[in-house]
Specification:
This protein is mostly helical. 41% of the residues lie in helices and 0% in strands.
Length: 63
């Protein structure tokens, strides 16, 4: 499901599992959240990376 819809939240997936397989996933919300987080980190969209740029006075001055 995550491959088709990577924006899917862990709670939505958990609700689907509880509805689809009654009695099997009742107390596993936190496990599902951790596994979805891990999957998104490995296979999800890349995060935007920003680096702070500091310019100190005098480094780029013209002599």
């Amino acid at each position: 499901m995550l491959k088709r819809e990577p924006r899917l939240e862990a709670t939505t997936l958990y609700e689907y599992l509880v509805e689809r397989y009654p009695g099997e996933y009742e107390s596993t919300l936190r496990t599902v959240q951790r596994r979805v987080q891990t999957w998104k980190a490995l296979h999800g969209d890349p995060k935007e990376v920003m680096f702070e740029i500091r310019h100190t006075p005098g480094d780029w001055s013209l002599d």
